[in-house]
Backbone:
């Protein structure tokens, strides 16, 4: 089984809909991250969490919210989806910042 | 502010040829440096990392990278490319202070031709 599992893997939805992307991990890591990947832009950090009670905005948090339900679960929500949120979304986990992060396989989200 | 530049968006090499992917970083002190690979439909996988010590680091799948402080570079190399190496490669820098923010480069897509 994958260490970092993202659901769904693919999602097509309409403008204005509320969307939730889920991430769960079995690595026992305290830190969890949500990134967005767009062609030519690399990965950009949306939100990160160092533990259940510590959630922080990343560089592109507008239009997104998160919930850390447990150490192993970190969800990303788009309250009212818009087309420019169409992207590939990745969840990652980690320990300290100088250790590599471990990534899920991504969720491809298309907003029409 | 820290930053990472991968100047090559797309590189094409023949199978069996050598490969070098460029990465330049900007950071006020010695950073932590990483190379990740992303195969289609998958997340990023760590190839190798540099924290300190020997400036030539070995990674998985036959890759290596050399840290050159004078050039602020951390280029990824492989002596002989295999078709399975076709993927997108990301360089990343982590600052040593604060929350240790990770900054990713924009990626280099590698195409391997037979």
Residues:
């Amino acid at each position: 089984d994958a260490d970092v599992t993202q659901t769904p893997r693919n999602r097509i939805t309409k403008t204005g809909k509320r969307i939730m992307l889920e991430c769960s991990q079995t690595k026992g890591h305290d830190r969890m991250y949500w990134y967005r990947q767009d062609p030519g832009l690399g990965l950009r950090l949306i939100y990160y969490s160092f533990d259940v009670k510590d959630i922080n905005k990343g560089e592109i948090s507008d239009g997104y919210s998160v919930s850390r339900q447990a150490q192993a679960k970190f969800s990303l929500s788009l309250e009212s989806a818009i087309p420019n949120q169409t992207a590939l979304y990745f969840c990652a986990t980690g320990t300290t910042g100088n250790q590599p992060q471990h990534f899920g396989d991504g969720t491809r989200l298309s907003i029409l | 502010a820290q930053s990472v530049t991968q100047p090559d968006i797309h590189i094409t090499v023949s199978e069996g040829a050598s490969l070098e992917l460029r990465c330049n970083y900007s950071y006020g002190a010695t950073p932590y440096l990483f190379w990740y690979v992303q195969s289609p439909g998958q997340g990023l996988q760590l190839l190798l990392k540099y924290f300190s010590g020997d400036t030539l680091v070995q990674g998985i799948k036959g890759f290596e990278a050399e840290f050159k402080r004078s050039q602020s570079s951390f280029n990824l190399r492989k002596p002989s490319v295999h078709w399975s190496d076709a993927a997108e490669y990301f360089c990343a820098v982590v600052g040593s202070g604060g929350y240790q923010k990770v900054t990713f480069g924009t990626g280099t897509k590698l195409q391997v031709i037979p």
